[in-house]
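User: What would this chain look like folded?
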Amino acid sequence: MATLQKIRNHGVLLLVIVGLAMLAFILGDFLNSGNSFFNRGREYVGEIAGHKVHYNDYEKAKDQLTEVYKIESGRSSFDEETTTQIRNQVWQMMLMDYTLQSEAGKIGMTVTADELSELCIGEKPHQLISSRRAFYDENGQFSREILVNFLHQIGQDSDEDTQNANMQQYRNYWSYWENAVRLTQLQDKYTDLAKNLLTANKLDAKYAFDGRQVSAEVQYVMQPYTAVADSLVSVSDRDIKKLYNEQKERYKQTPSRSIEYITFDVRPSEQDVAMASDLMQSLEEEFKTTDDIALVVNTNSDIMYDGRNYSEKTVPEQYKEFAFGKDAKKDAYSGITFADNTYSMARIIECGYSRPDSVQLKLKAQEEGKEDVEIGWLTEDQLTREMADKAFTGKKGEQFTMAAGLGEQTFEIMDVAQSSPRVKLAILQREVTPSSKTISTRYNDAKKFIVNNRTEELFRGSVAEEGMTLYPAYNLDKNADKVSDLKQSRPIVRWAFEAEEEGAISDVFECGDQFVVALLTSIDEEEYRPLADVETELRMKALNEKKAEYLKSQVAGLTTLQDIAAKWNTNVQTASGVTLAGYQFGNRGAEYKAMGTAIAISENTLSDVIAGNHGAIVLMTTSRTKAEGEMNADTEIAQLNQRRAYMLSYQIINLLEQESEIVDNRSNFQ
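Assistant: Here's the prediction, encoded as structure tokens.
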């Protein structure tokens, strides 16, 4: 009872406490859910034509294409350049897919399931399928039977985890190419429709025909702009700004950053060299005497021992005399050598025997009615060790078999080349690499540089004082995969776009065998390149326009080409076969203003001064010839459409991407 009374006496206080606790719980839950809500925006690598691209979907597409690369190339891993290529290829396919689907969907265009099935496994599969080597027979030809068998196999489940994993890899492989066929077919259908809508008309045909029919013989005088001193004309800031505003769309840009950076190269120290030397000396006796040379070499060497048969042409140059000289004998030892930062020693495992320099092979057909395939002449290095041992120890006319997938392939030795001496050579080689201590020391050097130079002024001063090289990297795009030729330098790009102000100095970045410290020199978020960046280009154009006016004033009142040539201290020249359809005005290149003028003016009439691309031109058409024949509008239209067709497909897809709302946030995830 006493407890209940205490509760009653403090009821209001307890209500407040409980209320506050409930409020805290509710706010905490809201903030947690709100945190998830706000983070949700970070789950998307971009948005294409209204479709948000989730990070997981992007990663799955990258993994899928990586598997395709592995199967197609036979490799299990890829370098940085190939990985970058895969990322960009995935994004480009997504761009095409979503923009094309969005537009095609508006008119009800699609690729049906039956249509896709026919394209993938019909009697005449799409080229993307028929060109896959995975579906080739032993004659190197596409086999629909192999394709159908492949699809049957990947549709089966297995009790073995390893086999299921392999099947899933092949399912992903097929899924990729099936989707590629669908996308390619949709693109072809959409662009074919556009081509039919954007066909040339009779006016286009007449213009093209007339452009070829009339050709002119022209005499002209040209004065290069370089012949006029810049001091003779005046270009104001107003002139340049006017040009900039007229051509502003040419200078549209995406946000960019510019940096400068220094490198701290990581090279082996004297201690690293000494350690490598000690290791080689500790292995020397065992290397000279062991009966299991493969174990010793393959455990310690950069070069594996596989029983290769070296010839005088294939043996490393430094061991040619040792392996094939007069003193060469079994178990001979070369001693330890050091060159190009690498320690090496060699031992002759077998010598005094010969093998053919090459053999000519034929792949035997496995089915009746099929022809044998002549492979041609091959050297040992072009074959696997197992196959080389069979091919190079056999005789002309003999056959041997090799395992191939689930079956076997039979080869015939058609001919054998002349034999030459061979040697089995074991090479234990160790390149001297920086130790963890050396790497740590160089890292600390870079870190110390940052600590002592926290401002741009101090940074530049120390670079100059220490004689270091400052490398520039201008106009970095946020999705750039690397900086200049620096390996694994994508993190530097990310830092440059995350830094808040110019003059920021980065932390230490590890880029291959270098440590890098960067200085952010400019942040450019403008939609257009600033006038200052293009002023030089615009000033040159403005100068040329002013020089054209100056040259025009020089020859005002002159009525002959000879007088104009004399005034400009140059010669009268000739341009033959000038047409509107051409691309050349004499030897002056594509001077389209002059070409149009030559066709348009009356014969033997002096033109006005023409402001050409490279100089001022005055011309006179001395004769004009019209070709015989009448226009066939249908033929002209067909030719125009054919010429446009190739570029039109690219232009249509490119235009769809330009007109779509695209947000690319991949830089936040790379």
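The chain has five domains: 2-42, 46-197, 207-252+531-626, 256-267+436-524, 270-431. If you want, I can go into more detail on any region.
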